[in-house]
Amino acid sequence: MVVNIFIYLEVFLSLVSYTIALYDNLATLLDGVHSPIAHLSTSNFYTITLIICLAMPSVWLVNLSKISFLSSVGVISSILLFVAVALTPAFSGIELNQKISSFNITKIPTVTGLYIFCFASHMVSVISFASVTLVYVTVGLLGARMFGAKVAGQITMSMPKSFAVTKMALIATTLTPLTKYAFEVFPIGVGVENSLPRALSKHTRRFIRRAFVSFFLLVVLVLALLAPQFQNVLALTGCIVSFGISVVIPCVLYLRIFDETSAASKTLLVAVICVSSVLGILGTITTGKSLVENM
C-alpha cells in the first residue's frame, strides 16, 4: 500500500512538472506569432483547453499498443533538445564565459531532489546511467557557461528566441510531455477499473475509468498553473517520492529480506537510509516553502 501511494504520487507530481514544461514552452513558441489562434493560445485558459484537447483522448485508451510509437517520439525529442542546446554556443554568438557558484550548501537539499528524480526512472545498468549522466552534465555545464546564474529553470527559456535552433528545442520540449500523459496515467486507470465491483458492466467500468483519469488530468493542469515553477516541482517530487521509492524503501526491504547481511553492509545501508531521509525532509521543506512563496 505504501509503495503504491508513493508510485501514484510520483506519477501525479511528474505530470504536473511535464505540464508546466509544456505550458511554458508552448507559450514561448507561440509568442510573437501574429494570428488569432496563436494569440488565444498564449492565454492561460486557452492553453489549458488546447492541452486538454491534445492529451485527453490518449488517456482514455485501454490498449497502448496503438500509440506505442509515441515512446520513440519522446526519445527523439530529447535527442533534438540536447543537440539544440549543444549548437547554441556554436551558432548563436553566445560565448561560454559566464560564471556560476560551484558550491552552495543551502541548495544541496533542492539539488539532490533534482538529481534523484533525474536518475530514479532509469533502468539500473551502466550504459543507461552513463548515458544520462553524460547528457545531464553536458547540458548543465553549457547552461551555466552560457547564461550563468541567470539561467532559467528550463534552459529553453534562456536560449535566444530568434535563433532557429531554439525553435527546434521548444518544439522538442513541447512534444516530450505530450507523449507521456497516456503512459503515466495508464496504470492509474487500470487500478481504478480493477477496484470497481465486478457486478458493474464492462462499459460502466470503462466509463468510470475514463471519467476518473479525465478528472485526474484536469487536477494536474490546474495545479500546474497554480505552481508554475518547473525546477521546484521536480525537486519536490524527488525529495518526497524518488528518495523513498529509489533509495529508502529498497534499502529497508533489503535489510528485512536478507538477514545474513554483514555488519558493514548493514551499517552502510542504515547510513544511506538516514542521509536520504534527512535530505528528503530538508529538500521537501525548502522546495515546498519556495513554491508557496511564489504561488
Automatic annotation (TrEMBL):
Domain Amino acid transporter transmembrane, first and last residues per copy: 124-285
Transmembrane segments: 5-23, 43-62, 69-94, 114-137, 207-227, 233-255, 267-285
Keyword Transmembrane: yes
Family annotation (Pfam families): Aa_trans
Gene Ontology MF: a single term: L-amino acid transmembrane transporter activity
Topology term for the membrane: Multi-pass membrane protein
Gene Ontology cellular-component terms listed: vacuolar membrane
Recorded superkingdom: Eukaryota
Localisation: Membrane
Keywords: Amino-acid transport, Membrane, Transmembrane, Transmembrane helix, Transport
Key word Transport present: yes
Main location per the UniProt record: membrane
PANTHER family to which the protein is assigned, alphabetical: AMINO ACID TRANSPORTER (PTHR22950), AMINO ACID TRANSPORTER TRANSMEMBRANE DOMAIN-CONTAINING PROTEIN (PTHR22950:SF696)
Protein's name in the database: Amino acid transporter transmembrane domain-containing protein
Organism classification: Eukaryota, Viridiplantae, Streptophyta, Embryophyta, Tracheophyta
